[in-house]
Write a structure and sequence with these properties.
Length: 124
């Protein structure tokens, strides 16, 4: 970075510099996860919960990769990570959407019943 100081001083508000490619990868992974999380929220507002869940699950996966990078572990390693605030937030958000979808689908099944009245003696 020291070699780049001459030209970068004029652009400090516009660029970020990294000493190592792993730091860049970590930052990009987090930023892309943030993008998918925000995109999922916007899609949900458009009343498309299934499509929103796709984006949210990608965000969840990317946050997990970010957490591994933060621990200086390989992204292919299957390890337990310390759950970040972002991961907790997205897990709770996904869970709330999935439970609402489950509730809505069970409500729909109840409405679709052919016989809304008790069948009485005919069912015995």
């Amino acid at each position: 970075i020291e070699k780049q100081m001459d030209w970068c001083m004029d652009y400090l508000d516009y660029v970020q510099m990294f000493d190592h490619e792993a730091d860049l990868l970590q930052r990009m992974t987090h930023d892309i996860a943030d993008y998918f999380f925000e995109r999922g929220r916007r899609i949900l507002k458009d009343n498309e919960p299934q499509e929103a869940l796709k984006h949210l699950h990608w965000a969840k996966r990317l946050y997990y990769q970010y957490e591994k990078l933060e621990m200086k572990k390989g992204t292919d390693d299957h390890i337990q990570t310390k759950e970040s605030k972002e991961s907790r937030d997205i897990n709770a958000f996904i869970e709330s959407i999935e439970s609402k979808l489950l509730k809505d689908s069970s409500d729909e099944r109840g409405k679709d019943s052919d016989n809304d009245e008790p069948c009485g003696e005919a069912c015995s």
